[in-house]
Amino acid sequence: MNGSASSVEYRSLVTGDWAPPSGFGQLYELREDGTCAQFGVLQTTTYSCTSTIFTASRDCTWSADGTTLTLDLTGGVVRSKMCGGELKESEAAPRQLRSGFRLEDDGVNTWLVLTDQGGEVRLRRTR
Q1: Hey, which residues does 98 pair with through a beta bridge?
Q2: pLDDT at residue number 127
Q3: Coil, helix or strand for 6?
């Protein structure tokens, strides 16, 4: 599981209402049988404009070879709503995600650390 929320908040001076938060989150579930699940959400709010994108995999498999982790996402859905517009839904295009990986244990949590040219992402194992 990985995510981030913006520390910037917007509040209407007219109504006093707070705008929805901005941020992203992603969840990967790697199962012992080689299947997996992937979910992601990205939401951004600027004043009264909120846009959201949600992804979910239906058919996902994973494999590890040495220090390389591969996820094959062959079916899924993408839902999006841009700045208060209509909700749109489409099939996600099949894709393959490949990353270097290592496991780290800090005595409290076990972390799956994914690495590529852009840096690394730390995903905490839930118990």
Answers
A1: 70
A2: 62
A3: coil
pLDDT digits (tens, 9 = 90+) for 31-55: 999 999 999 999 988 877 889 999 9
Residue 114: closest CA among 62, 77, 74, 75: 62
The 10 Å Cβ neighbour count of residue 17 is 10
Output the CA angle 90-94-95, nearest 5 degrees. Answer: 125
With contact defined as beta carbons under 8 Å apart, do 113 and 122 qualify? Answer: yes
- Residues 5, 21: contact at Cβ < 8 Å? yes
